[in-house]
Amino acid sequence: MGDTLRSIQLSVAKEKSAQCSIIFTGQTTYSTGFNPKSLNIVDVNGDGKPDIIVANSASNNVGVLLNTGNGMFAAQTTYSTGMSPDSVVAADVNGD
């Protein structure tokens, strides 16, 4: 806390005990719009991989970064919104 960069906290929970290794190989930076306020991690395209949705408040858009399947994300595709979106929520609205 206290820095101006936003951080993502990784939490892993499992009810059975097992040995596991998690390896972080280095920082990868992804560009967003100006003043990102909120993000959500959800499979937006139905491929079974988690994608990133971010509210770019000062850019007046929402960005979607699709998971490429190799541990990386594609450059964001933006969708215009009204003024200053400050949060994103994902839901299956048509039940498919």
Compact summary:
This protein is mainly β and 96 residues long. Helix content is 0%, strand content 23%. It is built from no helices and four strands.
What does this entry look like structurally?
By secondary structure, the chain is mainly β. The protein has a domain at 36-80. 0% of the residues lie in helices and 23% in strands. It has strands spanning 36-42, 51-56, 61-65, 77-80. Strand 1 (36-42) and strand 2 form a beta hairpin. The radius of gyration is 15 Å and the shape is globular. Mean pLDDT is 82; it is low at 1-7.
Main features:
single chain; 96 residues; mainly beta; four-stranded antiparallel β-sheet; 4 strands; 0% helix; 23% strand; disordered N terminus
Helical region count?
A: 0
Largest sheet: 4 strands, antiparallel
Spans of 5+ residues with little confidence (pLDDT < 50)?
Answer: 1-7
Strands of the widest sheet, in order across it, are: 1-2-3-4
Q: Helical percent range?
A: under 10%
Mean pLDDT: 82
Structural class: mainly beta
Share of residues in strands: 15-25%
Distance between the termini: 39 Å
String of helices and strands: EEEE
Blueprint (SSEs and pairs):
Layout: E1 36-42, E2 51-56, E3 61-65, E4 77-80
